[in-house]
Amino acid sequence: MTAGGAPTVGVLALQGDFAAHRTMLEGLGAIVREVRVPADLDGLDGLVMPGGESTTMTLGIEREGLAGPLRAFHAAGRPIFGTCAGLIMLDREHLGIMDILAARNAFGRQVHSFEEDLDLGLEGGPMRAVFIRAPLIAEHGPGVEILASVDGHPVAAREGTVLAISFHPELSGDARLHGQFLEAVGRLRDG
Ligand code: GLN
């Protein structure tokens, strides 16, 4: 954790598509560690929670005793970026790290994937977003900023140091959100 050096970020690697996040983060110059047990969180500057299957991921978090350490990681001011099942893990009914309530598999009969150009206010214009049995944000508290919606349903939100999205930028090859996350991680670390 050298000031100004590459941030060291974790990718929760209990289940799901953590490897694609790892590749994207390493491509941006971050040092990446896969997180499977609480000790893996030590010394990390930020954490990505990938997509996958939220029930399986919940069981893994319980099995490894990771819920408390993940909440403490957040409470210590370290940024977290959750995508898809990772967004579900962050909500009120799971880790309670974000003041949101996720609705699983929420896009009607579109049980497979769909894609959409989303305007997230990023430099370079809208982002191609891949949704796979995606959740939406059904409810959110006043401290949550909604960054983008699909058909009026919020799919991207920020609350303090936490960013949560319903889709999979690690699959579309657009690294801008990961880049923005790493910048926030570096800024907070070097404060
Ligand atoms: N449908 C999955 C769930 O509810 C999430 C899908 C994903 O992460 N791509 O857990």
Indicate the low-confidence ranges by residue numbers: none
How many angstroms separate the termini? Answer: 13 Å
What is the 3D form?
globular
Ligands and ions found:
glutamine
Order of the strands making up the biggest sheet? 2-1-3-4-11-10-9
What's the number of helices? 6
Number of strands: 11
Radius of gyration from CA coordinates: 15 Å
The ordered string of helix (H) and strand (E) elements is: EHEEHHEHEEEEEEEHH
Q: Let me know the largest β-sheet.
A: 7 strands, mixed
- The amount of helix comes to 25-40%
Classify the oligomer: single chain
Beta-strand percentage range: 25-35%
Q: Would you tell me the overall average pLDDT?
A: 95
- Give me the secondary-structure category: alpha/beta
